[in-house]
Amino acid sequence: MTTRKPAPVAPPPPGRRPHRPGSRAGQDDHLAVKVWLRMLSTSNQVEQAIRAKLRERFGTTLARFDYLAQLERHAGGLRMSALSRYLMVTGGNVTGLTDQLVEEGLVERKSDPDDGRSWLVRLTPKGRREFGVMAAEHEAWLKAMFSGYDHAQMQQLYELLGRLRLHLAAGSEQAAP
Questions:
Q1: What is the spatial distance between Cα 177 and Cα 171, in angstroms, rounded to a whole number?
Q2: Is the distance from CB of 94 to CB of 83 less than 8 angstroms?
Q3: Of 90, 148, 169, 170, which is the most exposed, with the fewest CB atoms less than 10 Å away?
Q4: Among candidates 6, 144, 127, which has minimal Cα distance to 72?
Q5: Segment holding 112, helix H or strand E
Q6: More confident residue, 57 or 25
Q7: pLDDT band of 23, cuts 50, 70, 90
Q8: What is the pTM of this model?
Q9: pLDDT tens per residue across span 38-84
Q10: CB neighbours of residue 138 within 10 Å
Q11: Nearest partner of 98 among 132, 136, 70, judged by Cα
Q12: Distance separating alpha carbons of residues 69 and 130, to the nearest angstrom
């Protein structure tokens, strides 16, 4: 009686441990960690590219672009405290950016008629024009970055990320006391 030798197994790809029958590790090994790392690295790559393009093309920063974008969405202006919340930065950061943008004529700061202790900030006509040019180019850069995907793929990615966002929001609500 002859004994058959098992067929040779191809080595795993570099950086991957071989799968051992009976072990819990497999193709889904650490998949959640891998997905998170892929999302994080991709987001960082896109952000770095946008930062570089804003600096090269307009001599501005992503923080300034985000600030102007928030004011564009709120034509009547925003209280500085609300702007700070939307941008997720301290009031001191908003004050510093506001001072610079007022000096450049891109935003104006006025006393809030509903609360004399607060300031409202809004885009000036010059700020609206300059932001419009930046926003159009920003969108074109993003379209170019995603040009390898058709509309259906982009829609699917958008929906999957939206589902994840809702799942995470629901989880944080459940975890809150």
A1: 12
A2: yes
A3: 148
A4: 127
A5: strand 107-112
A6: 57
A7: very low
A8: 0.76
A9: 999 999 999 999 999 999 999 999 999 999 999 999 988 999 889 99
A10: 19
A11: 70
A12: 11
β-strand pairing of 78-79 with 115-123: antiparallel
Taking the C-alpha atoms of residue 107 and residue 100, their distance in angstroms, rounded to an integer, is 9
In single-letter form, the type of residue at position 87 comes to L
Q: Which residue has the tokens 């459940």?
A: 174
Token readout for 168 is 């995470």
* Residue 133 to residue 101: CA distance in whole angstroms: 16
Helix 91-103 to helix 80-87 angle (10° resolution) is: 110
Residue 94 phi, psi (nearest 5): -65, -40
**Mean of the per-residue pLDDT values of the chain:** 87
* Residue 63 to residue 46: CA distance in whole angstroms: 15
